[in-house]
C-alpha cells in the first residue's frame, strides 16, 4: 500500500506509448456503420440474412470521407463486420460478404484509399461475436477463423491508426459460448500494425462508459489496471468489488491509493449522431442537435479525451442530406472557433523554469515544453503584444512526463489589475478553457494544484 499523500508519485510516472499519443492527436473521428442492418432496418442482424439483401445503388465511399474531413474530423473507423457476420471486404474465410452480394465493392479498400487521398487516418472496428458463422462457439476453429480475417484486414489495407474490438455477446443464457483467444488477437495486431491502438475492449483506449456523450469533468489517463478488461496479471491483487467503466472518478485519490498497479488508459467518448448506429428512416427526427454535438466535442476533445462520432450512410450508400448538413455545420463552427491562434507571436514569462524548459517552448509545434521549478502554485504568463478579443485557451500538458495538473485558473489583466476569467480541472493531452469574451493583452494561467511540477507543452489563444 502506498504511503499517505504519495499516491501521485507513481501516477505521474505512468506515461503514454507513442501509439497512444498519436491516437490522441486525432481527437475527432467517425465510426461508420453500414451493412446488412442498413437494409434489414435493424441494429442487431440475426446472421441469417442473405447477402442478396445488401444492394446499395449509389454507393459513394468518397462522399463519406469528404464529409468527415469537412466536419473537422481527422480520421475514420469503419465497422467492417457487425454481429450479423456480414463482411464489407471480400474475405476468403466466408461467403457472407460483399463479394457475394449485388454490390461487390470492397468498402474497406475504398475507405482506406480515400482516407489516404484526403489526408485522414483510417481504422477498423470488428465484432468478435458472429451470429452467422457456425464456428462461433466451437473454440479453436472459430479463433482460427477470426485470426485469419484479422490478418487479411491488417495486411491488405495499409497503415491503420487503430483497431477497435467489440466484445459484445447477446447469445443469452443458453446460447453459444466462445472463448476468444484475446492474447493471440492482441499479438497479431501488435505484430502487423505496431502503430495502431487497440480500442473497444483493448489495452490502449478506454471506453468512457456511455453512448450519450456524457463526459467526466476530471478525466485522468493514468488509472488502476483493472479498468482494462484484459490487463490482469497473475501477481495482481484482486480489484474492488464495485467498479465499472461509468465510474465518475476512476483515477481519484481513493482509487489510486488502492490501485496496486497503474496503466496509461486514456478515455474515448463514443456516441452515435442518431439514436442507433445504423441508418433507420424512422429515426430521421431523432438525430442529435448541432448544439449537442458541439457541446460534446468541447467536453470530450477539450477534456483530455477523444470523440468517436457514429455516422450511418443510408440505403443508397450515401450519407443523407440531413446528416451531411449537420456534419458540415460542425466543421464550419470549429473553423470559426479556431480560425487563428492569437498566441503565436506572443511573449512569454513564468514564475520559474527548469533549465532548458523555458516558457517560450509552449508556443512551439514540436515536443519541447515549459516545466516549472516549483510545485507551489506556479504560473505562466502570455503577452499577446496587443489587445485581442479572447474567449478560449487551449492548454496541453507534456504528457511524456505524466499527467500532473489537477486544477488551474485563468486570469486576464483588465484595467491594470488581474481578474479571474475562468477555472479548470485536469489538463492532460488537451484542455479547452472557455469564458465570456474579453479584450485583453496579458493573460496568466496559475496551476493551483499539481502532482509535482507543472509541465506545459502547448498554449493557444482564440
Question: Could you explain the architecture of this structure?
Answer:
With 462 residues, the chain is of the alpha/beta class. The protein has 10 helices and 17 strands. The protein is globular, with a radius of gyration of 23 Å. The two termini are 45 Å apart.
Which secondary structure elements does this structure contain, and how are they paired or packed?
Layout: H1 7-11, H2 18-26, E1 28-32, H3 36-40, H4 61-70, E2 75-81, H5 107-118, E3 121-127, H6 140-155, E4 162-166, H7 182-192, E5 197-200, E6 206-207, E7 222-224, H8 253-257, E8 262-264, E9 267-272, H9 290-301, E10 305-311, H10 321-337, E11 347-350, E12 370-371, E13 379-397, E14 405-414, E15 417-424, E16 431-450, E17 455-461
Parallel strand pairs: 1-2, 1-10, 2-3, 3-4, 4-5, 6-9, 9-10
Antiparallel strand pairs: 7-8, 11-13, 12-17, 13-16, 13-17, 14-15, 14-16
Helix pairs in contact: 4-5, 4-10, 6-7
The CATH superfamily of the largest domain is known as Glycosidases
CATH-scheme architecture of the largest domain: Alpha-Beta Barrel
Report the CATH C-level class of the largest domain: Alpha Beta
Task: Classify the beta-strand content into a percent band.
Answer: 25-35%
Termini separation? 45 Å
* CATH level-3 fold name of the largest domain: TIM Barrel
Oligomer: single chain
Tally of distinct domains: 2
Compose a concise summary of this entry.
By secondary structure, this protein is an alpha/beta fold. Helix content is 22%, strand content 26%. The chain has 2 domains: 7-337, TIM Barrel (Alpha-Beta Barrel); 347-461, Jelly Rolls, CATH 2.60.120.260.
Amino acid at each position: 500500500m502506498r504511503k499517505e499523500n504519495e499516491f501521485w508519485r507513481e501516477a505521474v510516472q505512468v506515461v503514454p506509448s507513442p501509439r497512444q499519443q498519436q491516437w490522441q492527436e486525432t481527437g475527432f473521428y467517425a465510426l461508420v456503420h453500414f451493412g446488412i442492418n442498413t437494409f434489414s432496418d435493424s441494429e442487431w442482424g440475426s446472421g441469417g440474412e442473405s447477402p442478396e439483401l445488401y444492394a446499395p445503388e449509389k454507393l459513394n465511399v468518397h462522399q463519406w470521407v469528404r464529409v468527415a474531413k469537412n466536419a473537422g474530423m481527422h480520421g475514420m473507423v469503419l465497422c467492417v463486420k457487425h454481429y450479423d457476420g456480414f463482411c464489407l471486404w471480400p474475405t476468403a474465410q466466408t461467403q457472407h460478404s460483399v463479394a457475394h452480394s449485388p454490390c461487390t465493392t470492397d468498402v474497406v479498400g475504398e475507405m482506406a484509399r480515400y482516407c489516404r487521398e484526403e489526408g485522414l487516418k483510417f481504422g477498423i472496428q470488428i465484432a468478435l461475436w458472429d451470429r452467422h458463422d457456425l464456428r462461433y462457439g466451437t473454440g479453436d476453429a472459430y479463433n482460427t477463423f477470426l485470426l485469419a480475417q484479422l490478418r487479411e484486414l491488417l495486411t491488405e489495407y495499409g497503415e491503420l491508426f487503430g483497431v477497435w474490438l467489440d466484445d459484445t455477446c447477446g447469445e443469452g443464457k443458453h446460447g453459444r459460448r466462445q472463448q476468444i483467444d484475446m492474447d493471440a488477437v492482441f499479438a497479431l495486431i501488435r505484430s502487423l500494425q505496431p502503430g495502431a491502438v487497440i480500442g473497444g475492449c483493448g489495452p490502449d483506449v478506454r471506453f468512457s462508459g456511455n453512448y450519450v456523450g456524457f463526459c467526466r469533468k476530471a478525466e485522468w489517463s493514468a488509472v488502476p489496471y483493472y479498468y482494462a478488461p484484459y490487463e490482469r496479471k497473475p501477481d495482481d491483487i484482486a480489484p474492488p468489488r464495485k467498479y465499472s467503466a461509468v465510474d465518475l472518478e476512476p483515477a481519484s485519490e481513493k482509487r489510486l491509493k488502492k490501485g496496486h498497479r497503474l496503466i496509461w488508459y486514456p478515455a474515448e467518448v463514443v456516441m452515435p449522431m442518431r439514436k442507433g448506429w445504423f441508418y433507420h428512416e424512422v429515426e430521421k427526427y431523432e438525430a442529435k442537435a448541432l448544439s449537442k454535438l458541439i457541446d460534446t466535442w468541447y467536453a470530450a476533445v477539450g477534456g483530455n479525451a477523444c470523440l468517436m462520432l457514429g455516422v450511418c450512410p443510408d440505403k443508397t450508400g450515401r450519407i443523407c442530406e440531413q446528416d451531411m448538413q449537420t456534419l458540415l455545420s460542425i466543421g464550419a463552427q470549429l473553423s470559426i472557433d479556431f480560425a487563428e491562434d492569437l498566441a503565436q507571436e506572443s511573449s512569454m514569462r513564468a514564475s520559474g523554469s527548469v533549465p532548458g524548459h523555458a516558457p517560450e517552448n509552449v508556443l512551439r509545434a514540436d515536443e519541447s515544453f515549459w516545466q516549472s521549478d516549483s510545485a507551489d502554485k506556479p504560473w505562466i504568463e502570455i503577452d499577446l503584444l496587443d489587445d485581442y478579443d479572447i474567449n478560449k485557451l487551449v492548454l496541453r500538458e507534456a504528457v511524456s512526463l505524466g499527467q500532473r495538473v489537477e486544477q488551474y485558473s485563468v486570469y486576464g489583466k483588465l484595467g491594470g489589475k488581474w481578474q479571474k476569467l475562468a477555472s479548470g480541472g485536469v489538463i492532460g493531452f488537451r484542455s479547452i478553457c472557455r469564458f465570456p469574451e474579453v479584450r485583453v493583452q496579458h493573460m496568466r494561467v496559475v496551476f493551483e494544484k499539481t502532482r509535482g511540477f507543472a509541465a506545459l507543452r502547448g498554449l493557444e489563444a482564440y
